[in-house]
Task: inverse folding
């Protein structure tokens, strides 16, 4: 039971290695410890293909999200640019007025 719990806690690929290791240990009791059944290897191959398929689907599903995020950033930068462009003339006028006031008070 404890060995089964250990298998559940481990990662996918490590579980595959444990399956092969378990079969190797069972065969070690016989004269052919190096023999590993084709069904064990076939199971590992199918798990790997299934995992690759799931990753591919996740990548395809994630692509539109990356594009949407990029568009959001572009819109945010454009909005900041518009705010700066609108506020800049007022800001330059205010700065010019302050320097003029300082210049007048100094008497230069």
Result:
């Amino acid at each position: 039971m404890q060995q089964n719990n250990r298998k559940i806690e481990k990662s996918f690929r490590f579980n595959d290695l444990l399956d092969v290791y378990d079969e190797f240990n069972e065969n070690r009791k016989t004269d052919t410890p190096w023999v590993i059944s084709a069904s064990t290897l076939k199971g590992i191959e199918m798990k790997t293909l299934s995992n690759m398929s799931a990753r591919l689907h996740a990548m395809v599903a994630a692509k539109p999200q990356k594009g949407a995020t990029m568009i959001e950033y572009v819109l945010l930068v454009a909005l900041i640019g518009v705010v700066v462009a609108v506020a800049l003339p007022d800001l330059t006028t205010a700065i010019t007025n302050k320097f003029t006031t300082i210049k007048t008070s100094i008497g230069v």
